[in-house]
Specification:
The protein is built from five helices and six strands. The protein is α/β, with parallel strands linked by helices.
Length: 189
C-alpha cells in the first residue's frame, strides 16, 4: 500500500465552471446597474389616473386642493414641506412658473405640523393656485412620493404624465417639463 492519501472523488466538470459562471452573472448585473441613472426613479403612476383626494385647507380662508381642481387643464402638482431645504432652492423657479401662467401650479404641503406650511409660504411667497395639506401622507403614499420636492405633471383628464424627483431647475423646466406641457396642451380634447 502506498502512503499517499487517496484523492477525493473527481468533481463533475460543471462544478469547476460554476463559480466563474456565478461571478459573470453578478458582474453582468453590476455592469447593467452602472448604465442606469440613479437620479431617475421610475414611477408606477405614469399614465395612470391621479388618485382621488381631498386635502385639508392650508389656512381657514383658503379652499383646499382636490382632485377635481386638476381636471380640464394641464397642471403641475408640487409636493413640498417647510422642513425641506431643496424646496427653498426650487422655490424661485416655481414662482417664475406661476408668473409665466403657462401651467396651473398646485401645492401639496407634506408632513408639516399645523401652520408650518402657511408660514413657509408667507415667508418665501406663494406661487400656487391652490394648496392642500397632506399631514397624514395619504396622498403622498398613493403617489409613491419618496421625498420632497417632487412634482407631477397631470394632463387635462387627470392622468399623471411625468414625475420630477428633486427640484425643478431652470434647465429642467426649459428642456423637459415645458416641452411636455406644450405637447399635452396641443393634444385634442
Amino acid at each position: 500500500m502506498s502512503d499517499v492519501p487517496q484523492s477525493r472523488a473527481a468533481l463533475p466538470a460543471w462544478a469547476a465552471v460554476m463559480p466563474v459562471a456565478i461571478l459573470l452573472i453578478i458582474g453582468g448585473f453590476f455592469a447593467w446597474g452602472l448604465t442606469r441613472n440613479p437620479a431617475e426613479l421610475p414611477s408606477t403612476m405614469i399614465d395612470r389616473e391621479m388618485p382621488d383626494f381631498a386635502l385639508t385647507r392650508l389656512t381657514p380662508e383658503r379652499e383646499a386642493l382636490t382632485k377635481q381642481d386638476l381636471i380640464g387643464r394641464v397642471s403641475l402638482v408640487n409636493v413640498f414641506g417647510s422642513w425641506c431645504s431643496s424646496c427653498i432652492l426650487e422655490h424661485p423657479q416655481l414662482e417664475a412658473i406661476a408668473e409665466s401662467k403657462q401651467v396651473a401650479l398646485y401645492g401639496v404641503d407634506w408632513r408639516d405640523p399645523p401652520g408650518a406650511g402657511a408660514a413657509w409660504l408667507a415667508r418665501y411667497g406663494d406661487p400656487y393656485t391652490k394648496t392642500g395639506v397632506d399631514s397624514d401622507s395619504r396622498l403622498a403614499i398613493d403617489l409613491g412620493v419618496t421625498g420632497a420636492p417632487e412634482t407631477f405633471l397631470v394632463d387635462r383628464e387627470g392622468r399623471i404624465r411625468h414625475k420630477q424627483v428633486g427640484p425643478i431647475t431652470p434647465d429642467l423646466w426649459a428642456d423637459t417639463i415645458l416641452p411636455l406641457i406644450r405637447k399635452l396642451d396641443a393634444e385634442p380634447t
